Amino acid sequence: MKDIKLRIRSVESTMQITKAMQLVATSKLRRAKERMEASKPFGVVAREAISAAVARCEDSNIPFLTPREVKRRCYVVVAGERGLAGGYNSNIFKAVDAHAEGADYCVLPVGRKAIDKYQHLKKELLEDIQSRVEGTSVSSCFRMAQAIVDGYQAERFDEVWLVYTDFHTMMDQRVEVEQLLPVVRAHLPEDATPVSTVYEVEPAETLRQVMPDYLAGKLYSAICDSYASEVAMRRNAMDSATKNADAMISDLRLRFNRARQGAITQEITEIVAGAEE
């Protein structure tokens, strides 16, 4: 009975922690979703402008459009700052391992877990300037985007892939692996309506100038999505842990009551037996 009581107290203490973490994650989730939604409009406009410029670019020698022999890849991996978020971090790393199987690659890590993971694997880190996902600044994304462009133009790698978690709903977060460079050229249908984009310079020069801005917008949007997904998964994990702890406490109390009832029955039996003698 004493062991069961100690176990109940231990589980109750753990449940208080998981409940507090669940409440903290719930409060953070609202702000994370607001920031995620605010990051979408720029990405939509930039994607449309880039797509239009790419589709109308007649220069086939632009580095950002022309595929080349892939000797090395660069993965931008957006992970979390800490654990206790279900399979959030492990799903990201599994997706990278599956996609890069057998390939030589370097990593631009975003988030403390990504930095620790690929430092441990002794992978070359392109940049570690962005170690926090929460509160990511646009200026940090611009620095990362410029590092990607410089490395790609210097042919340190031949493809750039972005791996992040896309937030759909509270219960649905999906790992996405998206190619950033070279930009895939979209073929416009013959009957497509011309867009109202006006270029001061040729589309090829426009691509060279705006590519860092475009990549920075993509990175910022992906990081906002990933952070909202991380907080949502942590809230769900802590909610499940709290419910499991509550069920465990109910089971332990039942066992405690049975043990106490057994002890009382035994004492009564001993008293009756002594009285009969």
Distance between the termini: 30 Å
Tell me about the biggest sheet?
4 strands, mixed
Q: Estimate the strand proportion.
A: 5-15%
- Mean of residue pLDDT? 83
How many H/I helical runs?
5
- Unreliable runs, pLDDT <50, ≥5 residues? none
Order of helices and strands: HEHEHHEEH
The dominant shape is elongated
Briefly note the structural class of the backbone: alpha/beta
As laid out across the biggest beta sheet, the strand order is 2-1-3-4
Radius of gyration: 28 Å
Number of strands: 4
Helix fraction by DSSP (H/I, runs of at least 4): 55-70%
Oligomeric state of this protein: single chain
How would you summarize the topology of this molecule?
Layout: H1 2-56, E1 73-78, H2 88-99, E2 105-110, H3 112-120, H4 138-153, E3 159-169, E4 172-181, H5 203-276
Parallel strand pairs: 1-2, 1-3
Antiparallel strand pairs: 3-4
Helix pairs in contact: 1-5, 4-5
